[in-house]
Amino acid sequence: IVWQLTTAKSNLLHPPYFAAPEVLLAGLGEDWRLLLSCLGSSALLFLTGYAIGSVAGFVTGLLMGWSRRADYWLHPLLQTIGPVPAAALLPLAVLILPTTYLGAAFIVAFGAWFPMATMTRAGVRAVPRTYIDVARTLGADQSFLIRRLAIPAALPDVLTGLFTGLGTSLAALMTAELVGVDRGLAWYINWVKGWADYPRMYVGLVVLIVFCRALMVLLFKLRSSLLAWQQDLVRW
Hints:
Blueprint: H1 2-9, H2 21-66, H3 68-81, H4 90-96, H5 100-125, H6 129-137, H7 142-179, H8 185-194, H9 198-226
Helix pairs in contact: 2-3, 2-5, 2-7, 2-8, 2-9, 4-5, 5-7, 7-8, 7-9, 8-9
């Protein structure tokens, strides 16, 4: 109601920088095919990079958390290059990798790798020593300790790494699409902004917000499924 009153009714917010709701709906109706194509491109690029970065971060964190030798060599590397913003690596990724699309996927993966590795390492190292001693006393081998003890115990921290990596990967995705690809939501927003078509720019932003919200809801559902045993023990 406030939006409608301040734009179409009172003209308090002047076009073209501000648009009434019906103008945005008209823009969505005209560009829905292009927006759907851009959404698919962004989703594919994001899910590819995010999945690769999350798996790589999980493996890195598991190695550092379980093995003292791996932690000795990998943790300084993590502390050195991990805090570097993923977007800062885009020129290097485009230079080294054969295509700009792979470079874009790399920085999205890098955005997910660091928080995932950090949280997984912390979760594995926080497993109580008594759990490991009891399992070994009952005959558990190294593989059993990792699969049935370390990973389940670290699962809350792993999911925290997924949530944190989601934000950093999305930020990297927006930068990558402005430089490294020719189709996507960020590309669309920048393209229509260049034509000073602000209503369509706002439509692109709304679609982007809905996309990010959907990813967050899916992660919450995943957490609820994997950590169902926690619901009566901690406050969610």
